[in-house]
Design a protein that fits this description.
- The chain is 28% helix and 26% strand.
- With 254 residues, the chain is of the alpha/beta class.
């Protein structure tokens, strides 16, 4: 069944007016009235719906069943120093597929933002679209959060996760030796830009409780390091490597 994320307000009533983005996808997929689709509110709410009407620029659907389904992934926040070009797009897309809960883009001394890159709300909205599409295609029940671009100091000050990891080429301990046996409540991973963190920036991260770790003998690119750690943490503490689980869900048929 085709899945689409919509705003929670859209799913408030049983008769749903479909938005422009969903209508575009339905047109591309050549779906017709009578077909069933799944609408998600990004917060765990699911609605199985039947298409009632489709016309040029408008359409409606009726809710047949409602239920809630929550994430099974390990709660992970990725603080990613802004990389060159469009590499952050890849991090957002693949990080979403790997179960990352929150993305925190960070501006550091060696970050090189493109001058033509959108700013403010336009930039954030573009990132949200990338995350939403990746969540839709990968079958996630909830949308990951994505924060506005902030300075390293601001990002560190807002970090409250129990386990805090800093992949760093100057670290002495390998990642495997720093991971606790019991799963922590949550984790944050701080990844530097091309060229890495400056000594001053690394010291600020250490002062904020981040533990420096090595990721083996090879140097990973900025767009690879966070994804590698995310996969390891999801396998160790999350839902990667598990068999298909039946999610508990609550709801009612209409």
């Amino acid at each position: 069944m085709r899945r689409f994320f919509v705003s929670p307000q859209t799913l408030a009533d049983d008769e749903i007016t479909l938005g422009t983005e969903v209508l575009h996808h339905l047109s591309v997929l050549r779906l017709r009235p009578g077909a069933e689709i799944l609408l998600l509110d990004g917060e765990g709410g699911h609605c199985r719906c039947r298409l009632e009407s489709l016309a040029r620029g408008s359409g409606t659907a009726r809710v047949l069943e409602r239920w809630r389904q929550l994430e099974t992934a390990f709660p992970l926040r990725l603080l990613q120093a802004l990389p060159k070009g469009e590499k952050l797009d890849l991090v957002l897309q693949k990080g979403t597929e790997l179960g990352t809960a929150v993305f925190s883009p960070v501006l550091t001394g060696r970050s090189v933002p493109r001058h033509e890159r959108e700013r403010g709300e336009r930039q954030l909205e573009r990132w949200r679209r990338i995350v939403a599409e990746a969540a839709r295609q990968s079958g996630r029940p909830c949308l990951p959060g994505i924060e506005p671009l902030r300075s390293l100091e601001e990002a560190l000050a807002s970090t409250a996760e129990e386990l805090r990891l800093l992949p760093w080429e100057e670290a002495a301990l390998p990642l495997a030796e720093t991971l606790p046996e019991e799963a922590p409540a949550s984790a944050a991973v701080l990844v530097g830009p091309e060229g890495g963190f400056s000594r001053e920036e690394a010291e600020k991260a250490l002062a904020a409780g981040f533990v420096p770790v090595r990721l083996g003998p090879r140097i990973l690119r900025t767009e690879t390091a966070g994804l590698a750690v995310a996969a390891i943490l999801q396998f160790r503490y999350g839902d990667m490597g598990r068999g298909k689980e039946v999610e508990g869900r609550s709801g009612e048929a209409r």
